[in-house]
Amino acid sequence: MIVAFSVTPLGVGEDVGEYVADAVRVVRESGLPNRTDAMFTSIEGEWDEVMDVVRRAVAVVEERAPRVSVVLKADIRRGVTDGLTSKVETVERHLSS
């Protein structure tokens, strides 16, 4: 499964990069395949392990922010591995032809 999610601290002002970095650090330290862009962090793995990482990423932000907003989108597809890479490669292949 691939989960794309964003964690946004509320009530801490406009500069939230430090809080977001805390959440991304949790994801990267998980050892699961992941990718971060300007809007979301995507993580790939089995349901329980991915959702545990998302929960811990939210918790680390919640420790310092009075309110946290989470947006989550999941692609649940049995038997697919390396979807973070293969999905992008498929689109790039179509773009180059």
Keywords:
3 helices, Thiamine-binding protein domain-containing protein, single chain, Alpha-Beta Plaits, Thiamine_BP, UPF0045_domain, globular, alpha+beta, 97 residues, MTH1187/YkoF-like, 26% strand
Describe the fold and architecture.
- The chain has helices at residues 17-29, 47-62, 83-96, and strands at 2-10, 34-36, 41-44, 67-75.
- With 97 residues, it is of the alpha+beta class.
- It has a single domain (2-96), classed as Alpha-Beta Plaits (2-Layer Sandwich), CATH 3.30.70.
- A four-stranded antiparallel beta sheet has the order 2-3-1-4, covered by helices on one side.
- The protein starts with a strand and ends with a helix.
- Pfam families: Thiamine_BP.
- InterPro entries: MTH1187/YkoF-like, Thiamine_BP, UPF0045_domain.
Q: Rg to the nearest angstrom? A: 15 Å
Poorly predicted runs are: none
CATH class: Alpha Beta
Overall, the morphology is globular
Through-space gap between termini: 28 Å
Q: What composes the largest sheet?
A: 4 strands, antiparallel
Alpha plus pi helix count: 3
**What topology, given as strand order, has the largest sheet?**
2-3-1-4
User: Could you state the oligomeric state of the chains shown?
Assistant: single chain
**Derived structural class:** alpha+beta
Helix content: 40-55%
Average pLDDT, all residues: 95
Q: How many structural domains does the protein architecture include?
A: 1
Annotated CATH topology = Alpha-Beta Plaits
Number of strands: 4
Topology pattern, helix = H, strand = E: EHEEHEH
InterPro entries: MTH1187/YkoF-like, Thiamine_BP, UPF0045_domain
Organism: Streptomyces yokosukanensis
Family: Belongs to the UPF0045 family.
Pfam families: Thiamine_BP (PF01910)
